[in-house]
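Researcher: Hi, I'm a grad student and pretty new to this. My advisor asked me to get structures for two proteins we've been looking at. I'm not sure of the right format, so I'll just paste the first sequence and hope you can take it from there.
Model: That works fine. Here's the first sequence with its structure tokens right after it:
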Amino acid sequence: LIEESEKLELQTAVALHAELTRAFEAWPSMRVGLLHGRMKPDEKAATMQAFAAGDIHVLVATTVIEVGVDVPRASIMVIEHAERFGLAQLHQLRGRVGRGADESTCVLLFEDPLTDAAKQRLKVVFETTDGFEIARQDLLIRGPGEFLGARQSGVPMLRFADIERDVALI
């Protein structure tokens, strides 16, 4: 979330940015940046440019950074409320770190209690970085949805075949 919501009690990007800015006051050379979808395109570009150049050391961002961000020096990512994201999104977010020579870490923070589906998703992301395997597991967890419709998840439309088990026949 960018800002507080009456419906959801989640950490917001604006609040976390303020909290981290205060936490790093003792180190004036450490700059904390903020990036979210409500920013103007030129503001977003300037923030990303400053982060890529090393002028911003910690970047608090919403999922606007999910795709297209290539900052090789980025080596640590913390994803808050990871239980709320799908497998593809978690895989994309995690892929924003580890692009350079430095060892990288992605930390997934989540709230208990977890649903069974959330447990399965987090387990998959923990166990593999293979995008094809993640897509396969996503299909197993969510189901194929509609082949000719708009639904992305749901009960398989096949009555007798199993899309995973019978892939050669299908």
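Researcher: Oh nice, that was easy. Here's the second one.
Model: And its structure:
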Amino acid sequence: MRTFAWALIVGAALVGACSDGNITSGNSPPSATILTPSDGVAVSQSQPLQLSGVVGDRGTAVLDLRVTWTSSAGGLLFDGSPDDTAGNTRFLWNTPAAGTQDITLAVIDPGGVSATATVRVTIIGNVAPTCAITAPSDGVAVSSASPLLFQGQVGDAEETPETLLIEWVSNIDGAFGATAPTSAGVVSTTRTLSPGLHSITLTVRDGGDQTCMDTILVPVNAPPSVPEIAFDPSAPRSVDDLRVVITTPSE
């Protein structure tokens, strides 16, 4: 009788585990792994942030999975299917919010079972570039007869110097010299300036639209011009008082 009772119990268990002649098992959870960015990394806000990961599920076709990327500061970033049958998922966050935040990759299968992966990153706000005019010297008079060398030193915490936008401007002669910096951050150009007291400004702009400005005064000297004169009267007689009149003064 004991053997028969155990047989009934085992038989009932098998019947309960069968459906249409097939043995079923519970829905296993999917998997989610973040590949980039790394946990704890610090990146610049001036550059787009590449999010990439991989998801999978043993009991579901990969493209039937639903993937979301979210940020604790930026909210929902992406909602859709994996990029390919290998389960890769990528999202380029063009304008990441500054500050420390959690980025989460979540995946859910058609049965409602889900999995998540989270990394913490620090987005560093864009810092303005640096700039300084190194030549010519501030306030030192120069001649208008020959080209003048303008030189400066620029830099940026998030970008290489070559990517910075450069502009030299004179308050008298206008903009000139937009050459790109060298890899060492040196900017230079030559210009012949018109006579007068010039206010020369070097402006540097980075990819995040942050700017730096430096200004010097450059007095530009020129040789005096020859004045123009006339006689009064223009056809004098021997009895006339003769005067010399300056019709155009010297500059």
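Researcher: Is there anything I should tell my advisor about the second?
Model: You could mention this: The longest strand covers residues 114-124.
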